[in-house]
C-alpha cells in the first residue's frame, strides 16, 4: 500500500488561492486541507498537526502573525507565510514569531512548492539540532563540539564569532533567521540593531567558504536576515 503524502494546511481567505495551491500540492503527491480563517487554522492544527502550513497574514479574524504566535506554543510544524504584505517589517515580525519562510504575493507556484519541500526536509531534524555534534549542509561540515569547519573535506579557519554565526545558521538550515535573532544569539541580548556586523561577517564567511555568487550557501534575505542552504539541491539559487 502506498504511504500517504505529507499533509499541508492552506490558510487563506481567498478561495481561488486555496483551490490553486491545493491542486498544485495534490498533483505532486501531497495531501491538502484548506481553511479560510485564523481560528479555523488553530483549531485544525490542534486536532491534527499537519506536516506543514501555508499561512496568509491578512486573515479576516485573527492576524496571521498571531496565528504563528499561538501555534508555536505547542508545535514546531513548518510554517510558510504566503502574503501580499511584503514589507520587511511584516516579514521580520512573522519570522520572529515562528514562521519558517515567507513568499510574497503575487507568487510563483514552483517557488512556493520548493519552499514547502525545503521546510519539510529540514523539519524532522530541528528538534535534535542542539544535540547534534556535526551539521552537514551539502559539502559543508560544521563540527560544533570541536569548532571545526570543512568545505569539501578542506579545513576552513574561522574566528569564534564567524563560527558561532555559521553554526547557528546550520542548526536551522534552510530557515530564514532574522537579523535580530542572529545578533542576540551570537553577540548577546543587548544587541539587536547592529546589522552592519552581520554584513561584515557574512562577507567574510562567503570568502572563506569560497561561495559561488550564482549558487551561494549563505543567502541574504534583503532587509530580513540570512539562511544557510545546500546550494547543490535548492531549486532557486536566488534564495
Could you explain the architecture of this structure?
With 239 residues, the chain is of the alpha/beta class. The protein folds into 2 domains: 7-126, Rossmann fold (3-Layer(aba) Sandwich), CATH 3.40.50; 134-228, Winged helix-like DNA-binding domain superfamily/Winged helix DNA-binding domain (Arc Repressor Mutant, subunit A). Helices cover 38% and strands 20% of the residues. The protein contains 8 helices and 12 strands. A 5-stranded parallel beta sheet has the order 2-1-3-4-5, sandwiched between helices. A hairpin with a 2-residue loop joins strand 8 (148-151) and strand 9. The protein is globular. The N and C termini lie far apart (37 Å). Mean pLDDT is 86; it is low at 125-131 and 235-239.
In short:
With 239 residues, this protein is of the alpha/beta class. Helix content is 38%, strand content 20%. It has two domains: 7-126, Response regulator (Rossmann fold), CATH 3.40.50.2300; 134-228, Winged helix-like DNA-binding domain superfamily/Winged helix DNA-binding domain (Arc Repressor Mutant, subunit A, Orthogonal Bundle).
N to C succession of SSEs: EHEHEHEHEHEEEEHEHHEE
Mean pLDDT: 86
CATH fold-type name of the largest domain:
Rossmann fold
What's the total number of strands? Answer: 12
| CATH H-tier superfamily of the largest domain | Response regulator
The structural class is alpha/beta
- Fraction of residues in helices? 25-40%
| Radius of gyration of CA atoms, rounded to a whole number | 18 Å
Into which percentage range does the β-strand content fall?
15-25%
Query: How many individual helices?
Result: 8
